[in-house]
Design brief:
Elements: E1 3-7, E2 13-18, H1 19-22, E3 29-38, E4 44-49, E5 60-61, E6 64-67, H2 74-86, E7 94-102, E8 107-116, E9 128-134, H3 136-142, H4 150-161
Parallel strand pairs: 3-8
Antiparallel strand pairs: 1-2, 3-4, 3-6, 4-5, 4-9, 7-8
Amino acid sequence: MEYLPLVNSRGEPVGKAPRTECHGNPDLIHPVVHLHIFNSEHKLFLQKRSLTKDLFPGFWDSSVGGHIGFGEEVREALARESKEEVGIDAAQALFLYSYIMKNQYESEYIYSYLLNWDGPIRINLTELAEGRFFSKKEIQERLGTAFFTPNFEEEFRRLCAAGVF
């Protein structure tokens, strides 16, 4: 059984719970990492979630995203998820912000990072269905159409508000 760390509203550790409980109880806040990969044309790489995902299968989402394991540091999770999903080294990623995203299924304490990257991206097809770069206009045209995860739509608003996109 996989256990995820639990945190309070400030991101401070408060315990652990099985992954299945975290994905069914929005009162349990678990930490995750998101990486936003921009190329030199200022397009944002997005991943299409695998059809086997529990939540929002087949929806487009942040470049990289995943749970922080119990006992794992934020940067360790960022490095692991980046290697697993898109085959890149995220050591140069810059921290943007953190916030809580809550929906009817779960609550996540999200650590968001930015990486400018023009190198190769190797999509792991056991993790993702596909991936590609999107312009800001392409994203804006699809907002609210069930093309993106609700989480990504919130991230997009935050990226724009922060002047990143």
